[in-house]
Amino acid sequence: MKPLLEIEKLRVSFEGERPVNVLSGVSFSIQKGETLALVGESGCGKSVIAHAVMRLLPSEARVKGSVRFKGTELLELDEKRMSALRGNELAIIFQNPSHALNPVYSIGRQLAEPLRVHQKQGKPDPSQKVLKALKQVGFSRPEHYMKYYPSWCSGGMNQRFLIATSTILGPELLIADEPSKGLDPDRIKEVERELRAHPGAGKTALLLISHDLGFVRRLADKIAVMYSGEIVELAEAADFFEQPLHPYSLGLLGSLPENGFVPIPGSAPALSDPPSGCRFHPRCPYGEKRCLQEHPRLKDTKGRFVRCFLCP
Amino acid sequence: MSLKIKNLSKKYGAGLFSEGTEIFREVSFTLEAGKTFGLMGPSGVGKSTLGRITAGLEKPTDGDVFYKETSIFGLAGAERTAFRRKVQLMFQDPTDAFNPRKKIDRSIFEILKLIKIPEPERPDKTRTMLETIGLSEEVLSRFPAQLSGGQLQRLALGRILLLEPAFIVLDEPTSALDVSVQAQVLHLLKQVQEKWRIGYLLISHDEAIINFMSDSRGLLENGKLRVLD
Amino acid sequence: MQKETCVHEKEPCVYEDVELQREARVRKKACIKKEAYLEKEPGIPDVGYVQKKAPGQKEVDILKKAPGQKEVDILKKAPGQNEAYIKQRTWQEKIPVFRQPIIYLQKYGKFLGTFNRAGLFLLLFFLCMALLPSFFAPYSPAERFTPYEAPSVSHFLGTNDIGNDILSELFYGARISMMVGFASACISTLIGLTIGLLSGYFRGWVDELLMGFTDVVLILPKIPLIIILGAFLHPSVWILILVLGLLSWESLARIVRAKTLQIRESGYVKSARGMGFSPFHIMSTDIIPNIVHVVLPKFMLATASAMISEASLSFLGLGDTSMKSWGMMLSFAFSRGGFIREMWWWYMPPGLCITLCVMAIALVGFGFEPKAGDTEKQVVDI
């Protein structure tokens, strides 16, 4: 089957006094209805992938490689066709719900906005669809909430509105950029529930970007671990949590609360100045001599991809 | 040495004509040197307010905080300044913890100047501090925006340690950090506690962190504190 | 050969040659970097990297450095050098507040746009005029020639009613006009900054008192008051500066207060207060440097508006006749028949100078305003 989203050798660099290679050759694909989670420390380039797919990168960014969505090369589309895709077939949920909603419009109006923009068939009143969408994200009295303004609601409610807005058109690919960052556990659970139960759930593929493995574990089908601008491990979620192969994945799992907060020593290298050889070697407990000199390739072992010399 | 919190109540907006909203009522617990008291509770119950009152930055509506058996709200002048140094606060957002227009070294040197460390000793002091928090000297010449959240949170801790506090109020110290960095910072906090026998008031909404760090725990809910063990 | 696509352009574009060249350059740089890196010693930790540990090992000692290789630490590599570095840094703490704007200028000067550059150039020109009028002016402003002369080779802009050379007057007038502008802007900025900082930082009754006072000043009808004051007091440049300065600080005070209230709640101010820094120290090193970008444009605009006020007051005849500013020249041109005789060379140049100078100052002022993403957020969110 042809994958829904196919990213191949995606390279992004930011130009400046010193150009910074944020992504150095990232490749992965998402099938229809699948959830892929991109995991990694902040500053490893995971949000850049989301922005590159949506073509929302700042103007100093240089993009190479290819991003194919249903066979269309997104990087070569003109702005008009791109904005037709955005919101309609591709949707994104940003990190901070209270900033992503416009405070001067009511919830109902903001939810109807994508319908008005993207579906111009002569339906003057999109409210039925909005009501249905609100019901699906768990509001028992949607007609009541349609008249609300974002500032009247809690952050969790706003996050739910936001997910409803992004999914109201039933996009084929939904990108969630750090939806759980800075939230307390109850709200993380709420977000999790919404991501499972939004209107298009089941049909919609989800690209989930997060640093929180515990959160990702409950949602993802596939996991891609990123480190310093490249993917170091890509595997089915079940396999990954059972037996992580890359030393960095091991370290990440070790620092989870249930595993006793065992930290990975050191800190992630700056993208402007990555170490030679394997980028993880300064922090790796199993490092060998060749790790300092050679850059490992992403090896395919039984459907799992690992970037490490030590893996069979 | 201990910090006793006795029957604290806090109301906001109470005035001549309004009752005000009650945040919490009759909260009591004790912070011991070298021990951690973990304070849990959902967001918006006034955990941070309680932390600020404990550090003497805010006044309670009722109740008192005792440091070495004297009420901290009755202190004045030099005694008050001395107390302020002994109880320090560490905040949630590391990106906000340092003045964006000062390089790190300037922020650090200002503190050393404040606590009257003579100039020749300052580089040594700084070096010892950086060693404690596990950072290299290179960070000194950076602006806060050029450092990662983990590095900044370590520096925020190091900066506090320069003042040699007896107690630190940790207000969600890791909730803005990545999971892997969070583990590092928690371990660093434990290490520091063992070395200097500092008492922590750890405020967090994450039960796992509280369980990992605390010697005793309390749950603040519906305006009341329930001490769990 | 891979294609490079500009994401933000409508048509996809392929940079073949350019791309090749750049790639070669990048490769070259990378080689150099790699060599330098290897020379240092492989495995030298990055910033913030000190200890090393196997996963699963529960007792982690972050304080202790691992033996062997890691002993070669950045800390120990060049102790002498580091010492010097730290000592050398101490002078930085002594940078007085008044130097901050200069540092700011040096740092953000390159962000000025074309218009701002033009403004800067013009302003420098006028400043030269004001500072060294005797260098530019062909005659002394008091020297007399034939009155009402038309422009000629000896008098570029002719002469006025009492025979003074207008070009020379123009050069000497720059000093007075700009002095009034800058001096009264200095006064108003100083007052506005102090009042805004105090009321924003201390809040409570200090805030209520100072802001109440500010509101009173805000509703005073300025121009009539200045006219009355100008008429009652002896018309003098110094009184004018004082009056203009004392009556135009309220909006700055309001802005500074709002910004101070905001910065006061930031983590670094809160922790500085917790550590026991004095309010003065916090205000001068933590708050002021972070509001300079608001105050500087305001200062420039205050200068411009003070110059305009001075010109209009002088035109109304409330200026200082002994110190001939551009506004005064206009006033004389009006009252002594310059307009009736259609001597454009008399009234046009001072008018033009005022306009250009005010424009230059305003343009430079706008250049100080931070552009989105320049100062607030230096790092791209990754």
In brief, what are we looking at here?
The complex is a heterotrimer of chains A (312), B (229) and C (382). Chain A has 312 residues and is α/β, with parallel strands linked by helices.
Overview of the molecule:
- The complex is a heterotrimer of chains A (312), B (229) and C (382).
- By secondary structure, chain A is an alpha/beta fold.
- Chain A has a single domain (5-89, 169-306), classed as Rossmann fold.
- Chain A contains twelve helices and twelve strands.
- The radius of gyration of chain A is 20 Å and the shape is globular.
- In chain B, the strands form two sheets. Chain B has a six-stranded mixed beta sheet with strand order 6-7-8-3-9-10, with helices on both faces.
- Chain B starts with a strand and ends with a strand.
- Chain C is built from 15 helices and one strand.
- The chains are: A alpha/beta (312), B alpha/beta (229), C mainly alpha (382).
- Chains in contact: A-B, A-C, B-C.
- At the B-C interface, α2, β6, α3, α4 and α5 of B face α3, α12 and α13 of C.
Strand content of chain C: under 5%
- How many domain regions of chain C? 1
Helical content class of chain C: 55-70%
Question: What is the ordering of alpha helices and beta strands of chain C?
Answer: EHHHHHHHHHHHHHHH
Spatial order of strands in the largest sheet of chain A: 6-7-8-3-9-10-12-11
Class based on secondary structure composition and strand pairing of chain A: alpha/beta
- Major β-sheet annotation of chain C: none
Average pLDDT figure of chain A? 83
Which H/E pattern describes the elements of chain A?
EEEHEEHEHHHHHEHEHEEHHHEE
Low-pLDDT runs of 5+ residues of chain A are none
- Strand segment count of chain C: 1
- CATH topology grouping of chain A: Rossmann fold
Assign the CATH architecture of chain C.
Answer: Orthogonal Bundle
Catalogue the unreliable spans of chain C: 1-20, 26-94, 372-382
Give the number of helices of chain A: 12
